Amino acid sequence: MAEKKISAMLKDYKVEVKFSAMAVKDLKGYDKNINEQVIAVIVKRARNGPLIKPKGVGKPLGKELNGFSNIKLKSLNLRIVYRPVEKDDKIFMEIIAIGPRDKDTVYRKAVKRLYEFKKEMADL
After folding, report:
1. 28-67 residue pLDDT tens
2. Residue spans of alpha helices (H) in the chain
3. 3 state SS of 44
4. 2-122 belongs to which CATH class?
């Protein structure tokens, strides 16, 4: 699974990545090459500071996605929407959606998933 691969890459950082069940399905919807690129960009963000500015490099999203940030993969025309959470001595990157960069598609997808996402992340 992607979480295990990412965890191994981040073992020297105090960042842990968690995918919601729907984000796992999003990732599985792409081929292996794209999956590897998505994982690489998530790891890069985790290493560079996944928190929202000014504590990290993430740009804040607004409205219903307040507290979330995104990662843009321009070369693949994809966006990853995640919520950075500081807990104890760790930062968790909770991935809610991965989808097309066209207009607001991935954001609408993330908003529709909010209730289940929050419930799922609370259970971890």
Report:
1. 999 999 999 999 999 999 999 999 999 999 999 999 999 9
2. 2-9, 21-28, 32-48, 105-122
3. helix
4. alpha beta
